[in-house]
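User: Just a sanity check before I run the rest of the batch. Below are the structure tokens for the first item. I only need the designed sequence back.
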């Protein structure tokens, strides 16, 4: 089962496929994104046995991939999400863990993030 590397606002988490991870503003969540456009418990990322999946939990402002709002998506490596706004919401980059990747594991009490500043264009996704 492949690990997944999640990067947002200069922080990196390595996600293990054996469990699900919550994304949102909740300080008790696994990946905390401190941005008013992100819901308290915005979405969950998990591995379903064959691919990674993101599920939006009915967030107010949505989860977007290449500008399209998604509710449930199986994704491959090199996927970019925007939470809360299709163009300038907090950017979350998802990629496969490379050999020797040195990234801390996500913890249930990750530190709050600073508001996100928009960066470059989204790369392709599969």
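Assistant: Here's the designed sequence for the first item:
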């Amino acid at each position: 089962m492949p690990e997944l590397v999640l990067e947002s606002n200069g922080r990196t988490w390595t996600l293990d496929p054996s469990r699900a991870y919550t994304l949102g503003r909740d300080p008790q969540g696994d990946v905390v994104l401190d941005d008013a456009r992100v819901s308290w418990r915005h979405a969950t990322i998990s591995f379903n046995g064959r691919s990674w999946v993101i599920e939006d939990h009915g967030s107010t402002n949505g989860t977007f991939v290449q500008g399209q709002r998604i509710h449930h998506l199986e994704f491959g490596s090199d996927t970019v999400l925007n939470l809360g706004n299709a163009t300038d919401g907090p950017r979350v980059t998802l990629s496969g863990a490379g050999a020797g990747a040195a990234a801390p594991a996500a913890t249930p009490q990750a530190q709050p993030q600073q508001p996100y500043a928009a960066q470059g264009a989204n790369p392709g996704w599969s």
